Amino acid sequence: MTQLALSDVPAREVLAATFDEQVDNVFAPISEFITGVVFAAVPLDFIDEGVELPLIVVWLVVAGIFFTIYLKGFQFRAFGHAIQLIKGKYDDPEDAGEVTHFQALATAVSGTVGLGNIAGVAVAISLGGPGATFWMIIAGLVGMCTKGVECTLGVKYRRVYDDGRVSGGPMYYLSQGLKEKGKGTLGKVLAVLFCIFTLGGAVGGGNMFQANQAFAQAQSVTGGADGWLGFGAAGAVFGLVLALLVGAVIIGGIRSIARVTDKLVPFMAVFYVLACLAVLFSNFTQIPSALWEILRTAFSPEAGFGGVVGVLIQGFRRAAFSNEAGLGSAAIAHSAVKTNEPATEGHVAVLEPFVDTVVICTMTALAIVITGTWADETSAPGVETTSAAFETVAGWFPVVLAVAVILFAYSTMLAWSYYGLKASTYLFGESMFVDRTWKLIFCIFVVIGASSTLDAVIGFSDSMIFLMSLPNIIGLYILSRVVKRELFGYRERLAHGALLPVAERGITPSPTGGSTAATTGVDGTTPNPPPSVEDR
Does pTM surpass 0.90? Predict the structure, then answer.
């Protein structure tokens, strides 16, 4: 009996490997084609051999630059008022919506802060040198404006039902906003495409990849293949536990997700920043020279990094891939906010790229540059580079990094489950069946992601995530005048004292989301409520 049990273990592993290979073989040609199109790059060999300019990065960054100029640096002027909003100074309990400004921000941040903030930054610096950090910050500051634009539109064109629930995001401002511009057919097509891309991204990059990397980190810090997570079914067991944790939260919808993320996101952000500060303080003598190296290499051409352009591309690429500005995903979460002023969420949303890129990605970059692990050719660029930086504090300190990775992955899955849900209900209708079916499918894919590799499927999903930016940014350009009116009109009323904090209006601020106020749809009519479901 003992011999039979031992022989079964490699058989199961071979079966799992065969399943992975079969699925990869089916998806590989499709994934390679779509990935090749989405991440197509223009070679810049005249600058340096091997330097390429990814067109998707140009698409995202140019949008940020355009709106920064068009809105006269709105994101920088919005910062102070955004802080007031997330503190609840303008929270009116009678406003339509489900969550507070802070909860909407926390949910959106939970969707962007993930493995890319840890592994992706290490790859960018390994390929572009320390100077990539500077351009990453610049791109993050530019992306703040794009976030403000899409989230303003998300609230303006959202659907608010009689029972207080909300559905919003790019699919709504694409269909309704473009209809107002006489481009209704184009808007419907773009909205459907956006939802299809969102579903693909939610299943893979927002789910399977996160579960896979969370398990990999948990297994790594518990002894690897020889540790207590090294047995054959460890991935499936880990995935099942993770799926139960995810399911327990997402079953309650955006209000339940927001109640978790408004506590989890501040905790994990402070936790990670403090861990990075511990790395910096442990190597404090290297801080001045590292900061100088970042500034020097950001502007001085160096062999191996493609010169200034090569360094700039790596920094911009990391920021664009990390904060998701222009993808439209965050607008789905921000649309659930309790407000009757769309521009308020445009202000709050600018904080998201700041937290994701300017704070968290920069802390990772500083830890890597100051410890010098980015130049270590013995370790593969990615989590290993960041882990090596953490190890300079103490031999056990990479465990702290593993905890951060798992927390980031978990929070990302919570947010993307909601994004996928709203894409599903837009395509198939607001019903309990669609709601429960999507959440079940999402949890099943958590288990699959943790227990299998499926590289081609995840690569395909990553492409879907960035394809979201194509219909979204087209819509942003077409609706740019609408956004300008909303934002500038709001700021003018704010400056003239027409908009007062709730305390000065004699209103008690709302503790969390929820509203019983009468609401209307984007066309000024009261939409029919969908079939009754539990508070989700």
Answer: no
